[in-house]
Design a protein that fits this description.
The chain is α+β, with helices and mostly antiparallel strands. The protein is built from 8 helices and 19 strands. Strands 6-7-13-11-12 form a 5-stranded antiparallel beta sheet. The structure holds flavin-adenine dinucleotide. The site of flavin-adenine dinucleotide has 33 residues, from strand 3, helix 4, strand 9, strand 13 and strand 15.
């Protein structure tokens, strides 16, 4: 079947294909094995054609943005990884900015800045794609995607397109309906406000300065490793238990911010999972709080 699928894939226009491809370089954690197939659609139509083909073959796939909120298993992924990084068109009309899912939040925030639009400053330092940000309802410094999203155009796994309103997207803390329904983000439409370019830029710089000061951005990581339990801050709790700097293999609880696990060089997914479990067990034992990992776990561990 694989040979037949490979032949059919080669006939799709605008599709870049790699076989047995290392995923490490496509994750911010720099961890993970290989994907059987790695596909990069260059246009929306290519993506739709690809989905239809995969549906015919009942071939498993995973949608990858910037890989900044995933932990890929050391044995990699059996199936196809579809990387959205080439889908990055942006259109601005008045205060409405509409962009394809693969654009980075940093690039999007810069486009908004150039157009004198305020509202995306909070996102400029989050190292994800727009699609991943909608999926996670990413947020920082008191703002989140929910504050700016109007609607999104989504594809189901057969390649049919739907428009979901903000309400239908059900955005809440690090959650969207995309985590429940098999849907792919194609474009997101956001409403911003007219603003002063100098002020927008100053706010972006200030937030990114604060981020750099607090977060271990000099090391690979997947950002905050646990979701924030209501009424508690994860970093200080971990610090209180004396776990700051604790290390398993090359995975370490950051000395700079205990809510982050960093990869000191050759950390494996297995190291990270052991460390996550250790923290979860200790926090539960000492505080009775169940910590839930924020990143998604992908592939074989
Ligand atoms: C140093 C660092 C700092 C961070 N700071 C923050 C922060 O301040 N706030 C915050 O909220 N997060 C933060 N994060 C986490 C992360 O950047 C966000 O969750 C981001 O939105 C993930 O986007 P991504 O493109 O990297 O998604 P990925 O990691 O590629 O994927 C995450 C999930 O989204 C899904 N997905 C991606 N694209 C699509 C699509 N087009 N359609 C459907 N599903 C899709 C994937 O299938 C996967 O399930 C940080 C991460 C790091 C490494």
């Amino acid at each position: 079947m694989l040979d037949k699928l490979k032949k059919a894939l080669a006939n799709i226009e605008g599709l870049d294909l790699r076989y047995d491809h290392k995923l490490k370089e496509y994750t911010s954690f720099k961890i993970g094995g290989k994907a059987d197939i790695f596909a990069i659609p260059k246009t929306k139509n290519t993506l739709i054609e690809l989905l239809q083909l995969l549906q015919d073959y009942q071939f498993p796939f995973f949608i990858l943005g910037k890989g900044s909120n995933i932990i890929v298993g050391d044995k990699g992924y059996r199936g196809m990884i579809i990387y959205t990084g080439e889908l990055k068109n942006v259109n601005i009309e008045g205060t409405i900015i509409k962009a394809e899912a693969g654009i980075t939040l940093a690039a999007l925030a810069n486009k908004a800045l150039a157009a004198g639009l305020s509202g995306l400053e909070f996102a400029s330092g989050i190292p994800g794609s727009l699609g991943g940000a909608l999926y996670m309802n990413a947020g920082a410094y008191g703002s989140e995607m929910k504050d700016v999203v109007r609607e999104a155009s989504l594809l189901d796994y057969a390649g049919n397109e739907y428009i979901y309103s903000k309400e239908e997207l059900a955005l809440s803390y690090r959650y969207s309906i995309l985590q429940k329904k098999p849907l792919i983000v194609l474009t997101v439409s956001m409403e911003l406000e007219k603003g002063n370019k100098e002020e927008i830029k100053a706010k972006m710089l200030e937030l990114n300065r604060r981020r750099k000061e607090k977060q271990p951005l000099e090391w690979p990581s997947a950002g905050s490793i646990f979701k924030r339990p209501e009424g508690h801050y994860v970093g200080p709790m971990i610090e209180e238990l004396g776990l700051k700097g604790y290390r398993i293999g090359d995975a370490q609880i950051s000395e700079k911010h205990a809510g982050f696990i960093i990869n000191l060089g050759n950390a494996t997914a297995a190291d990270v999972i052991k460390l996550i479990k250790l923290v979860q067990d200790k926090i539960y034992k000492e505080k009775g709080i169940k910590l839930e990992p924020e990143p998604r776990f992908i592939g074989e561990f």
